[in-house]
Design goal:
This protein is mainly alpha-helical. It is built from eight helices and no strands.
Length: 236
């Protein structure tokens, strides 16, 4: 069966299914004809009428899902395709998985699309259309994740820069603290050396004052030894 990439597989006909209600058969056949004619809205009307008679029939759920897919109603289509998995025919389940993958692809959920295509290939390993769509979904997922990876790398670089700046700030702070501690220790050491010296500041001032007093006494003694100054008088 030929299928395009990311397109709905050919409709699974209900004519081969054993039916007991003419109304169901008529509605199903009309739905199939409308689907072939491209009138998917009308096909859905007939399928829903047939669904009243056979609500759990997987083939009918598949057909409804196919029409919903064509209408662009992807979430509803996904629900119907999932209901069509309960079937004894491996080929039918593989087609349902394939088209469910198409639905997820259209929705931009490439991860789920990949999972559905892989499940379809597990059932029918040689289906070339499924293989093609699988590789296409992988490519799209990779493209989708590129901006996220770039954002992740940029965020990681930003965090590394912030951590580096933090380390530098902490190192600078430690250096300043070490320098401050060294200064304090040096001041303490100088103060201690001054206090342990031969004289304190008060002692030095007292000695200096005493020296000044001694100088005054010495000058006084020298004047006394020289005697009074001689009067030269006038030469008449």
């Amino acid at each position: 069966m030929n299928k395009f990439a990311i397109s709905c597989a050919s409709l699974m006909m209900l004519l081969g299914v054993s039916v007991h209600a003419d109304n169901f058969t008529g509605m199903a056949n009309k739905g199939n004809k409308s689907f072939k004619d491209g009138d998917y809205s009308k096909a859905l009307e007939y399928y829903h009428q047939a669904e009243v008679e056979r609500p759990e029939m997987p083939e009918l759920q598949y057909n409804i899902g196919s029409a919903l897919y064509k209408e662009g109603k992807y979430e509803e289509a996904a629900e119907k395709f999932q209901k069509s998995f309960v079937t004894e025919k491996i080929e039918n389940e593989a087609m349902a998985q394939y088209n469910l993958g198409n639905v997820f692809y259209k929705m931009g959920d490439y991860q789920k699309a990949i999972q559905s295509y892989q499940k379809s290939l597990e059932l029918v390993p040689d289906d070339l259309d499924t293989k093609y769509n699988l590789e296409l979904a992988r490519k799209m997922l990779k493209e989708q994740l590129k901006p996220q990876e770039q954002d992740k790398q940029q965020q990681q670089q930003k965090q590394e820069q912030q951590q580096q700046q933090k380390n530098q700030d902490e190192q600078k702070q430690e250096q300043e603290q070490d320098q401050q501690q060294q200064n304090q220790e040096q001041q303490k050491q100088e103060q201690q050396q001054y206090q342990e010296g031969e004289m304190t500041k008060e002692d030095a001032e007292r000695i200096l004052n005493a020296l000044k007093d001694d100088e005054k006494e010495i000058q006084k003694d020298i004047r006394q030894m020289q005697g009074p100054a001689a009067n030269q008088g006038n030469d008449w």
